Amino acid sequence: MATVYLGLGTNLGDKEANLRTAIYKLQERIGKQVSLSSFYETAPWGFESDHSFLNAAIGLETNLPPIEILHITQEIEKELGRTKKSVNGSYSDRLIDIDILLYDTLVLQTPELTIPHPLMTERDFVMNPLIEIAGNVIHPTRQKTLSELYQE
Predict the structure, then answer these.
(1) Structure pTM?
(2) Catalytic: 97?
(3) Are 55 and 6 in contact (CB under 8 A)?
(4) Where in the chain are the domains?
(5) Do residues 108 and 12 lie in contact, with contact meaning Cβ atoms separated by under 8 Å?
(6) Is 93 marked active-site?
(7) In this structure, which long-range contacts are made by residues 147-152, counting pairs with CB atoms below 8 Å and at least 24 apart in sequence?
């Protein structure tokens, strides 16, 4: 079994319900929840919006490969009403966003998926919830704990 850490975010509709529904579907399709952060209210990042975000991080035990997890998360996003993904750094309001942050110590770079998530350490809205549940986890390419990286 592997541990996969996912970042979740929403800034439209009933944000808490969006996160809770996504969490339920993730547990149902990917694996057993081993950790869940608090929900963090954050400002939009990378674009202007009148809608604040609600963000969280979840750790799941899984026997699924990362690419299958990606496809499942994309399917859940569509089911919850997400109509488009961000393209070339063009961000917008969204009902749900689910990102794969870490998958054990795996380092993966394909046209479809990069693990660890390449921008995670630059984003407080990702790192704060992730550190809450995985602060002692070692970043697979930077060889420091997530807490140490966040303090830099």
Answers:
(1) 0.93
(2) yes
(3) no
(4) 2-151
(5) no
(6) no
(7) 149/121, 150/121
2-151 topology per CATH:
Alpha-Beta Plaits (3.30.70)
Quote the CA–CA distance of 109 and 116 in Å, as a whole number.
9
Catalytic-role residue among 29, 93, 99, 104: 99
Query: Which ranges in the chain belong to alpha helices (H)?
Result: 15-29, 66-79, 124-134, 146-151
Backbone φ and ψ of 22, nearest 5°:
-60, -45
- Euclidean distance between CA atoms 29 and 148, whole angstroms: 32
pLDDT, tens only, 104-121? 999 999 999 999 999 999
pLDDT digits (tens, 9 = 90+) for 31-60: 999 999 999 999 887 777 888 999 999 999
Residue whose C-alpha is closest to residue 115's, from 7, 42, 23, 34: 7
| 82 among known catalytic residues | yes
Cα four-point dihedral sign 51, 53, 54, 60 = positive
**Could you give the CA distance from residue 66 to residue 43 in angstroms, rounded to a whole number?**
29
> What are residue 87's DSSP bridge partners?
90
104: Cβ–Cβ under 8 A, 6 or more apart, which residues? 2, 3, 4
DSSP annotation of 87 reads B
